[in-house]
Amino acid sequence: MSRAPLIIDAVRSPMGRGKSNGALASIHPVELLAQLLSSLTQRTGIDPGLVDDVIIGCVSQVSEQSATPGRMALLAAGFPEHVPATTIDRKCGSSQQAIHFAAQGIAAGAYDLVIAGGVESMSRVPMGSARQQADPFGPSVRKRYSPGLVSQGVAAELVAGKWHISREEMDAYAMASHQRAATARDSGAFATEIVPIVADHGPVERDETIRGATTMDGLGVLEPAFRTDDNAARFPEINWGVTPGNSSQITDGAAVVLLASEAYAAKAGLTPRARFVSFDVRGDDPLLMLTAPIEATRRVLAKGGLSLSDIDHFEINEAFASVPLAWCMSLGADPSKLNPRGGAIALGHPLGASGARLMTTMVNALEQGGGRYGLQSMCEAGGMANATIIELI
Fold first, then answer.
1. Nearest-5° angle of CA 93, CA 256, CA 372?
2. Is 349 a catalytic residue?
C-alpha cells in the first residue's frame, strides 16, 4: 500500500500571554508539551510505544528548553523509553519544518508513525535567550549586507514601505484578527483543536491572548515599537507604523500533529483527517526578511499543480500585519480566506510551536467549513519561509 503521509490528528494548547503572570507561565515547557502528547495518544488510541520518532520545533533551546524538549516531554508523558525525539530550529517555522520532516520521513520509508510539533514558553525562556550578547552573523555576512541586517520589527517596517501599506491598514488588519479570533472562540470553533492544560492555578481552557474589543482608536494611540534614533537615521524613508498592537504577541504554547503512512493507518484502523499535497522551503532577502512566503507560496502551488483559486483556506503567519498584507497584495489572494480565525496578532506567536498551531487551526477550519485545500506559510528569521498544502480526506 501507499507510503503517502497522512495527518491523523492535530491538537494545540490554549495560548497564554508570555508574561510572568500569563495563564501558562507556571508550567515548565516540558510539562506543557507532555500534556499535549498524552492527550494526542488518548484521542487517537495509539500505542505510544509504536511511535517511530517525535520531532519538535523549539527556537530558544536554552535553560528549560535545552535538553531536547521532545524527549523530556515524551518521558514525562509516560512513553516507553525506546521512543526517540529530536529538536528542530528553523526559527518561526520550526514546527512547520518538523511536520515536513515527519511527512518526508514517512514518504521515504523511514517512519510509519510520527509525532511532529513544537513548544515555546516565552515567559520562562525569553526570546533571544540563546543569543545573549553574541554576534550570530559573523564578519562575512555583515560585510555582504553592510551596514548590517536589522531586527524583524524594522524589516516589517521596510515591507510596509515597499508595499505602501499604511499604519491605518495595519491597525485595521490587527483589529480584524482579534475580531475573527473572538468569533471563532465564542462560537466554539476552537473547541475541537484546543486541549485544556492543567496549570498550578487550575485548568486553562481558552486562549488568553484574544482581545475582541480591540478598536482602531485603541490601536492608534500605541507608539511605534522599533523607531530609534539610529534606525531613523539609517532609514529616513520609513513612516514607522509597526506597533505592539499590529504585531504578533509574545506567547506560551504548544501544538502537536500525529502523522502516519497510508498503509500503516489502514492496518492500525486510524482514520486520517488530511493528506499532504506539496511542500516548499525558500529563502529570500534577509534584510526584508519577511517576504519569502510570497515565493514559497508560488512554488508550493506549482509543485501541487494548483492555483490560488483552488485553495479554500490560507494561514499566513501574522508575525506583523504587514506580512500577510504584502503577501495578499503580491499574489492577489482573496482576503476573506486569509487567516479567517485570526492569526498571531490575536492568538499569539509561541515561536517554535506556531507552525503546528497554524496547521491544527487550518485542519479544523477546513473540516468545519467544508473546504478541501489549505495552504500555510511562515516567514522566518534570516529571510526564509516554509509552505505546505494539505487536502482534507
1. 80
2. yes
